[in-house]
């Protein structure tokens, strides 16, 4: 395994606004060994939980979630932004820093009682992950854990998930915003 996956994360200063240090996972995704190692580390955490489904949050959560689902031999379900899924959907509105957004998934795709793992590339404030967990619970799913490649602990996302009773783990952490 690559000893330090953090070396494969590119930092882009002042994106999307001044003062933000954007942690770009696409450089890790482009590295075959790094992607394999990250997926293996996520699988090591996920395997003992024996989930029924892996649920990935748009957009980079699709990449990591699908890789994890493949590794574990489980199905994958995308949680998307409003209007991106064809057919009948269920959704949840949630508050952003400057407004609101909506997450959706296909109606009936997550059966009642399903044991799911929620996956995304990065957790910052936790708003999107908390909304996704709430949406899954509204469908009758049990959210076993939320898994992330990167945590920005200074922004409190893990604490927000914990406050909602959702266990969470990240492979890497970066200080600051």
UniProtKB/TrEMBL annotation:
Q: In which pathway does it act?
A: Purine metabolism; AMP biosynthesis via salvage pathway; AMP from adenine: step 1/1
Localization of this protein: Cytoplasm
Task: Give its E.C. classification number.
Answer: 2.4.2.7
Q: Which residues form a coiled coil?
A: none
Does the UniProt entry include the keyword Coiled coil?
A: no
What keywords appear on the UniProt entry? Cytoplasm, Glycosyltransferase, Purine salvage, Transferase
According to the UniProt entry, its GO molecular function terms are: adenine binding; adenine phosphoribosyltransferase activity; AMP binding
A single GO CC term, please? cytoplasm
Q: Which GO terms describe its biological process?
A: adenine salvage; AMP salvage; purine ribonucleoside salvage
Name any one Pfam family assigned in the record: Pribosyltran
Q: Which domain of life is it from?
A: Bacteria
Q: InterPro entries attached here? A: Ade_phspho_trans, PRTase-like, PRTase_dom, UPRTase/APRTase
UniProt domain Phosphoribosyltransferase: residue ranges: 49-143
Q: Which reaction does it catalyse?
A: AMP + diphosphate = 5-phospho-alpha-D-ribose 1-diphosphate + adenine
Q: Gene3D superfamilies in the record, alphabetically?
A: 3.40.50.2020
Regarding protein family, the annotation reads:
Belongs to the purine/pyrimidine phosphoribosyltransferase family.
Q: Subunit notes for this chain?
A: Homodimer.
Function in brief: Catalyzes a salvage reaction resulting in the formation of AMP, that is energically less costly than de novo synthesis.
Q: What is this protein called?
A: Adenine phosphoribosyltransferase
Q: Where does this protein come from, organism-wise? A: Sphingobium xenophagum
């Amino acid at each position: 395994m690559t000893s330090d996956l953090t070396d494969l994360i590119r930092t882009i200063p002042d994106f999307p606004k001044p003062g933000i240090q954007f942690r770009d996972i696409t450089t890790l995704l482009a590295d075959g060994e790094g992607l394999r190692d990250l997926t293996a580390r996520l699988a090591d955490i996920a395997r003992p939980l024996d989930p029924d489904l892996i649920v990935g949050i748009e957009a980079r959560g699709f990449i990591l979630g699908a890789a994890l689902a493949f590794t574990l031999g489980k199905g994958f379900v995308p949680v998307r932004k409003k209007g991106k899924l064809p057919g009948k959907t269920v959704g949840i509105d949630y508050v952003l820093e400057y407004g609101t957004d909506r997450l959706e998934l296909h109606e009936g795709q997550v059966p009642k009682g399903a044991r799911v793992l929620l996956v995304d590339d990065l957790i910052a404030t936790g708003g999107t992950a908390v909304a996704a967990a709430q949406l899954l619970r509204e469908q009758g799913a049990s959210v076993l854990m939320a898994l992330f490649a990167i945590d920005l602990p200074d922004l409190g996302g893990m604490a927000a998930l914990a406050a909602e009773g959702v266990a969470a783990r990240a492979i890497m952490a970066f200080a600051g915003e």
